[in-house]
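Design a sequence for this backbone.
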C-alpha cells in the first residue's frame, strides 16, 4: 500500500508518498486545489492509498473525495506529529509519514487528537 503524508493548505497541499513496506519515499510534490490538480492526482492512483494529514481546518471536500475513491484518510494531532520529527529541513508531509501514527477519520466528521475512529 502507498502512504501519502499531506501538508494541507487552503489553496494547495504538499505531499510525500512512500511505499508502506519499505518506507522508500517515491514522490514529493505540491498539488494545487483550485486547478483540479489534487483531484486528478488522487483519481490517478491505483488501488487503495492511506493519506495521513494533520488535524486542520476545512478539509471536508478532500475527505469526501478520498472516500469516493476508496482511499483511507488518517488524521493526526499536529502537536504530536511535530514533536516526533527530528529538526531537519523537512515538510510536514515527511513528518506525517515518519511520525507517530495518525488515526482513521470518521466519515463526515474530523477527528482531532489520537482517538480511534472508523471509516
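Sequence:
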Amino acid at each position: 500500500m502507498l502512504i501519502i503524508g499531506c501538508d494541507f493548505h487552503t489553496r494547495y497541499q504538499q505531499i510525500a508518498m512512500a511505499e508502506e513496506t519499505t518506507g522508500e519515499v517515491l514522490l514529493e510534490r505540491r498539488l494545487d486545489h483550485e486547478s483540479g490538480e489534487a483531484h486528478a492526482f488522487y483519481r490517478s492512483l491505483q488501488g487503495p492509498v492511506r493519506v495521513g494529514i494533520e488535524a486542520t481546518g476545512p478539509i471536508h471536500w478532500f475527505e469526501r473525495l478520498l472516500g469516493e475513491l476508496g482511499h483511507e484518510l488518517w488524521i493526526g494531532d499536529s502537536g504530536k506529529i511535530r514533536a516526533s520529527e527530528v529538526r531537519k529541513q523537512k515538510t510536514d508531509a515527511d513528518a506525517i509519514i515518519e511520525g507517530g501514527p495518525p488515526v482513521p477519520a470518521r466519515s463526515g466528521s474530523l477527528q482531532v487528537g489520537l482517538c480511534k475512529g472508523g471509516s
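Residues 2-45+59-104 form one domain.
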